[in-house]
Each structure stands twice: as structure tokens, then as C-alpha cells.
Amino acid sequence: xxxxxxxxxxxxxxxxxxxxxxxxxxxxxxxxxxxxxxxxxxxxxxxxxxxxxxxxxxxxxxxxxxxxxxxxxxxxxxxxxxxxxxxxxxxxxxxxxxxxxxxxxxxxxxxxxxxxxxxxxxxxxxxxxxxxxxxxxxxxxxxxxxxxxxxxxxxxxxxxxxxxxxxxxxxxxxxxxxxxxxxxxxxxxxxxxxxxxxxxxxxxxxxxxxxxxxxxxxxxxxxxxxxxxxxxxxxxxxxxxxxxxxxxxxxxxxxxxxxxxxxxxxxxxxxxxxxxxxxxxxxxxxxxxxxxxxxxxxxxxxxxxxxxxxxxxxxxxxxxxxxxxxxxxxxxxxxxxxxxxxxxxxxxxxxxxxxxxxxxxxxxxxxxxxxxxxxxxxxxxxxxxxxxxxxxxxxxxxxxxxxxxxxxxxxxxxxxxxxxxxxxxxxxxxxxxxxxxxxxxxxxxxxxxxxxxxxxxxxxxxxxxxxxxxxxxxxxxxxxxxxxxxxxxxxxxxxxxxxxxxxxxxxxxxxxxxxxxxxxxxxxxxxxxxxxxxx
Length: 535
What we know:
The chain is an alpha/beta fold and 535 residues long. The longest helix is centred in the middle third of the chain and has 14 residues, at 319-332.
């Protein structure tokens, strides 16, 4: 016979919750119930003191079957091979299972076991091989649960949307990212090479007082996720750049231009999607009113299509859209609206006079035509008043920062920005920063370029191939976090030797600060991070 606490049915749930909190409920036994009461098995008579309406009784409670743990169930399922499956990674609500070939036939049973013992996991996939290709992706095979590969991971105060089969993402580095964040000093300017979906930059932006964090990523899909994750976390002190860090000879200038905050005002650009002006105009006006009240300087990026007509400066039928945009600019004190043009030059020059009523607020962007400075001057001579310059486009055209700065200084009223990423076009949700520059600003921009305080290079095996690009944006005192794989017996001697040799090869001196193990790669092989400072 066992002690029991008999309570009215309507109060049973509250009593159970309290008993669990007080650790008075006997969880090895089942409860008893009749039409009016429920009797809980309790561990001590003192349980009745908190419930004056309850009755302390003795009864024979049926024992509950012992619930096996995941590990116990796995041993029963796999038998002598259970040691080959040590665990699994979790990204959001997706479990990533690494199953050796000898256990592949039992993969779906293991997946079902994970789902039954881990309620927060909704999907189980199998890793189909090692990370491969220039984007370091890993094939995933669905085993059980919801058929999806996209999820949202939570880490260090950051939400990160991830596609586990199309982008690189390692949940095992969460503590390492936290360690790096703990080293950052207020006001630092940081660059993260191979930033993927943006997790390193976002963790640093959220958890430090860094002035600005840049992420550079080659994979266009990973970069798109990074841009979405920036919006998802409402962070502004982070910039994502899509490109190959190893080919970024112009990277120092790009970073300098996009981060020169002392002389550059910040503008918010709202990118309009197809249908926003036709279907969401009241919502847009409410948003503009809030931004105006908050004292923000705002621009609108015209939608690509308005009432089935292309919204481009060289289209004569774009006038109705321009009229709506001009009205919004006047009513809400906006800086202007941005349009582009496909050219050719002759057509654009012929159409430009028809759009004269809108030119006080219209800014032509150089995404297509005009591709050279002489084209811009011809347009301004024909009546165009404002230009918004995508500096990256001119850098690609001229391959000379000196030429680009000199050309921009000769333009009339100019805004500049750097957009060498794949933009997100989610209509009213899409807000980006644009720098506003006077002609005089560019002289100071040239002096401000190319130096950062900290560089993170989380690309084991291949990071050495990119050290030259990292050093191009470094200065004396810059700290670099360099990741690699090494056998346990070689740590720390061989990582230290490798860094010293690489720095000597590039003609710089360094001071080694730390060699940190940050996860297993294989038996007796570790992922390591070498922290070193440029002297």
C-alpha cells in the first residue's frame, strides 16, 4: 500500500503541477480515479499540508512501466553496433544523423526513435557524405518526420534560418562563437570570411559593442539567408557582402566606403515589390508616417512592375508609377525614389523629357545602364538631376578605386552605396542602409579605407589560401582567428609553426595568442582556432 492524495477532479491538474514542483509526486506509479476524484501517489504525508481540500489515503497504485532512455533504446535496437552511433546534431527542430554504412538499413528506425524520445525534434535527416564543393555543402537524406530541410536555429541570442542541405552551418561551434564574442572590445570593426548564413557576424553584432561587423560569403543562397537573418534579428551594425574573399583586391576600398559613418548620413531605403503600390498603399503610408515621426531619412526603391508595365526610366509608360512615388515623397518628406534603366542610351535620352515632372525626386541607379561616367554626364546634360551610384558596379567596370572616386566627385547630386550581394525583394519588409555623400566626402573616404580590428576565418583546411586577402584589410594590432584541423599530438606546436610560416611568407610579423580546441573532426583529430595578432 502507498500513500495517496485524493482531490476533486476539477482541481487535479493544479495539484499535479504543485506536487511535481515540490517533488512529492511518485512518478513511478499511476494515479487512481473515479467519477468525482483523482488520487495521486505521493512520497510523503507532508504533501497534504498544501491542499486543505485534499484527503490523505492509502491505496494500491499500479506501477508504470519504466520508460527507456534514448541511449537504452538505441542499445536495444543496434545491439553490438550501438557504439558506432554516438549521437546526432540538432539544427532548430531538425536532427542530423551520421549513420555508418553498416547501420544504414536501421536508419529509419533510429530516426523514429529520435522523434519519439525528443518531442522538440520534428524532422530527422541522414548526412549523405562529407562537406564538398566550393560552397562546403553536405547532402541530406530525409528519414522521418516532416519532409523539410529548412529550419530556424537558436543560438547566443540569435535566430538563424538555415537550409541544412544547401548551406554550411555547424551547430557545434556555438560555444566557439560565444568565445570569440567575449574577446571583442567596444568599437571594433570586424570582418568574417566565409560567413555562410551570417551566424558569426550576427552573434558578434548582437553580443558585443562592435562598431560594425562584415560578413563575406561566396554561396549566393547562404548570402540570401544571411540577409534574411539580419532582418529577422533586427540588427543594423552588420553588413553582408557576397563574393569570393580570395579575389577581393578591392575589398579594402569597399569596406571603407560602406562603413564611413562619421561623414555619411544614414538613409533607409524601402524596396517595393510588385503589387505594393496597387494593393498595400495604406500600409506603406502608415510605415512612412512612422518613419517620418521617428526622424528617419527615407528613400523608396521603385517596384519592378506597376500595373503590368515595367518601371524603368527608359519606359514612357512608367509615368503613372512615378507620379504615385513623387506624391509619396512630397507627402511624407522622403528624399526620393530610385529607378533603374536597361538602356540603350538613345532611347533613354529620347524618353527622359517625358519624365521631367518627376525628376526632382527621381534617382537613377547604375545597375544596368549607365555603366560609365560619361553616360551619366550625358543624362545630366539632358535633364537628369540625381544619381544613386552602386560603387561595386563601377569598381567592376574600371577596376580602379582612384578612377571611381575621381569620377563620382565630378557627378552632380549623388548618393552612393555598395550592393555586391543578391538583394532580397520582400516589398515593405526590405530596408537597407544607403550612404549619402557630398563630393568632399570622398577625399576623407580614401583615408578611411581598409583597416579592421579583428578577422575571423572559419574555413578549416583552406583558410591559408585566403590569408593574403585577410592581411589586405589588417593593420598593426589586428587580431586574426584562424581555423584548421590537426591531430591531437600535434597541438599546439604544429598550428603555431604553420601560422608563423604563413605570416613570414606574406611579409608580416605576428604574435601567437592562443590555440584553442573547438570540436572533434575525427578520432584524435580536432578543429582548432589559432588566435594571433599582427605586429
